Amino acid sequence: LQNLHYTTSIPIPSTKDIPPGHALVRMRAAAINPRDMMIIAMDTETYPVKEANGIAPCADGAGEIEAVGEGSRWKEGERVVVSPSGWVDGEVPDLWGMKAKGAEGVEGTLREFVVLEDSHLHRAPDRLSFTELAALPVAGGTAVNTLLFGPVPLRKGMVVLTQGTGGVSCAVIQIATALGAAVIVTSSSDEKLETAKKLGATHGINYRTNPSWEEEVIRLTNGKGVDHAVEIGGAQSIEKSVRATKQGGLISVVGILSEDRAVNLVGPILFGAKIGGLYSIPSKLSSDWTLIADLGRTVRGVLGVSSAMVVKLLEVIREQRIRPVIGREFEWKDSKDAFEYSIGWSGVGKIVIKVGD
After folding, report:
1. How far is CA 300 from CA 10, 175, 323, in A?
2. Per-residue pLDDT at 148
3. CA 341, 345, 351 angle in degrees (round to 5)?
């Protein structure tokens, strides 16, 4: 956290400084994601981007239009949700081409004012607060990417497995349930499992009291396995997720939260390897390859959220009247405390910072 500094020396852009098709946004809230701490800590081994000195962190945010450039479709005072990356739609760019906010020289959302292209801004649902809106793009967008934009789009009646009660898992539970799927969730806490059920989960499994939780998933699905496993934990849990998924099912790798293992499936999957059926996986991204037969399941690395995914997310949020889960809110002056609190965060929902005094 010694890399994080508060500054008041950056001038507010004037109207004449706003390019055509852009808008000046007064940020009202920003949410923290695990990758933000990786970037601040310059942990390029886990999150392989260049250091981000001199830019504001965070990719999640919401605010209101302060001023507009020539030809902008926005009007002053409109509330907006910020897209977390420069990816608009279409083919998935690589990690560097994603131009995710808060990294690689791209300004993040933890600042009072930011100038953004019109395509990076989305009209906010009226009934949600700025804090709730800021919690949506990355977690909710990742859930939508996972459930609706992959090779096996979610259908009513499917069974989805997810892990924990962080921002992405809460969004997966809420969205999948609202769209007619059954959800099984794992957690280390019976209390959190009860919270997950209140969000819509059908079954909960405590992985501390039931370490062979993949066997319980198989039992709950009458020996078949789930249609779609959303892998949050990473190297320590992905093998169990694969075993809990039915033949022909999908495993979406979203998280890299657990400690490494001797044979790490996560890095190659998450950062571009093509996996499915019979596949090879490098140990720690080296030349030491291990052959693994997967019995026809598909493993997909989920990386990034496009503007099109945010649009779809907001459509689902409006239609299903979903409210994102907020774990804790911090004031602007306590931003550094929020990041410290986020280290090892294992609570329910998102950590959000209110921007501005």
Report:
1. 41, 19, 27
2. 96
3. 65
Q: Which amino acid is at 155?
A: R
CB 108 within 8 A of CB 296: no
Please state, rounded to an integer, the average pLDDT across all residues of the chain: 85
Look up residue 300 and give its DSSP letter.
E
25 neighbors 112 (Cβ within 8 angstroms):
no
- Please list, in sequence order, all residues whose beta carbon lies within 8 angstroms of the beta carbon of residue 160, skipping any fewer than 6 positions away: 147, 154, 172, 176, 181, 182, 183, 184, 226, 227, 228, 229, 230
User: With b meaning 16 or more CB within 10 Å and e meaning fewer, what string describes 288-317?
Assistant: eeeeeebeebbbbbbbbbbbbbbbbbbebb
**What is the enclosing helix (H) or strand (E) of 194?**
helix 190-199
N- to C-terminal Cα distance for the chain?
Answer: 22
Q: Around Cβ 153, how many Cβ atoms within 10 Å?
A: 12
Q: What is the 3-state secondary structure (H, E, C) of 6-65?
A: CCCCCCCCCHHHCCCCEEEEEEEEEEECHHHHHHHCCCCCCCCCCCCCCCCCCCEEEEEE
Q: pTM for the whole thing?
A: 0.85
Give the integer Cα–Cα distance in Å for 169 and 346: 12
Residue 320 is encoded by which pair of tokens? Answer: 């299903």
E-only strand ranges, 147-277: 159-163, 182-187, 203-206, 226-231, 245-253
CA dist 300 and 276 (Å) reads 8
The pLDDT score that the predictor gives to residue 297 is 73
pLDDT recorded at residue 284: 36
Q: What's the rounded Cα separation, in Å, for the pair 188 and 202?
A: 17
**Residue that wins the pLDDT comparison between 4 and 46:** 4
* Residue 57: both structure tokens together: 């962190």
Reported as a pLDDT band with limits 50, 70 and 90, residue 94 is confident
- Residue identified by tokens 């400690």 is 259
